[in-house]
Design goal:
This protein is 41% helix and 18% strand. The protein is α/β, with parallel strands linked by helices and 285 residues long. Helix 9 packs across helix 11. The longest helix has 14 residues.
Length: 285
């Protein structure tokens, strides 16, 4: 095989579109058209993209089940002076996708690893969510089993930062239902579906509302999802209102559910916690 002379021997980590093929960068096209070898999760899927771009590097399958073994082979290609690209099925490699072991192997062998940035589903979703993005916490895909999923959700339930999850069509309803159970139905959520594709949808509302919309419309259960949940608004982070004193005032004036809703509006927090506090006060009286 002839060695490419336009790019030095290095690993190029190339972001590709998540849907709309026009979202690829000119640099990504140039790199993919110039490298000797391209590592891809699904070579058949990636071949369609490369054909669309008019690029014809040698394709090698690198996925979560073989990337440890592939590392030695890719390093040997670099030692021969060949240039190598790494792409995922869509978006930026290594973000909830394979590639970590390959990048590590190449770096440890002393070869450069160059990022060729572009689209990432998590960043794309956050840019249109309307939720705080000064700090956010990316959790990737949740576990498939209910108990493990609820445990993972509970582990970040008190985070004040926007929580970001990936989800599939097979589990979107179950995951949203578990979020209602763990976070409460009032917590704000944004569900971004099929971003940059023909049927792109962004649903914004409370967890109760969005779960209801997804349950009612089977089309909202198809495709690939980014689920973004507002961080916990803790009452102890508020200034000027003492939660216990406010509950003492509201408890005798209105039913517990209304009083709990009023506390959420005034100082944040979870309606369920305020309801338990208020009903506890009523029992004490």
């Amino acid at each position: 095989m002839s060695v490419n002379t336009t790019l030095p021997a290095a690993l190029y980590v190339v972001a590709t579109p998540i849907g709309n093929l026009d979202d690829i960068t000119r640099r990504a096209v140039s790199v993919l058209s110039s490298v000797d070898v391209c590592c891809a999760e699904d070579t058949r899927h990636s071949r369609r993209l490369l054909d669309h771009l008019g690029a014809s590097p040698r394709l090698i399958s690198v996925h979560e089940h073989n990337e440890r073994d592939r590392g030695h082979f890719i390093v040997s290609l670099l030692e021969q002076g060949q240039s190598v690209a790494l792409i995922s099925d869509a978006g930026t490699p290594l973000i909830s996708d394979p590639g970590y072991h390959l990048v590590q192997a190449v770096a440890e062998a002393g070869f450069p690893v160059h990022p060729v940035p572009g689209v990432s589903a998590v960043i794309t979703a956050l840019s249109v969510a309307g939720l705080p993005t000064d700090h956010w916490r990316f959790e990737g895909f949740l576990p498939a089993k209910t108990a493990a999923r609820q445990k993972a959700l509970q582990a970040c339930s008190e985070s004040p930062h926007t929580l970001v999850f990936y989800e599939s069509s097979h589990r979107i309803l179950a995951s949203l239902a578990d979020m209602v159970s763990v976070y409460g139905g009032e917590r704000r959520v944004v569900v971004a579906r099929e971003l940059t594709k023909t049927f792109e949808t962004v649903l914004r509302g409370s967890l109760d509302e969005v779960l209801g919309w997804v349950e009612a419309d089977e089309h909202q259960r198809k495709g690939e999802f980014v689920v973004m949940v507002a961080g916990e608004e803790r009452a102890d982070q508020t200034v000027g209102l003492d939660p216990k004193a406010l509950a003492d005032v509201l408890a005798p004036l209105m039913p517990p559910k209304q009083a709990a809703a009023a506390m959420v509006s005034l100082i944040g927090g979870r309606k369920k916690e305020w309801y338990e506090l208020i009903t506890g006060l009523n029992k004490a009286d």
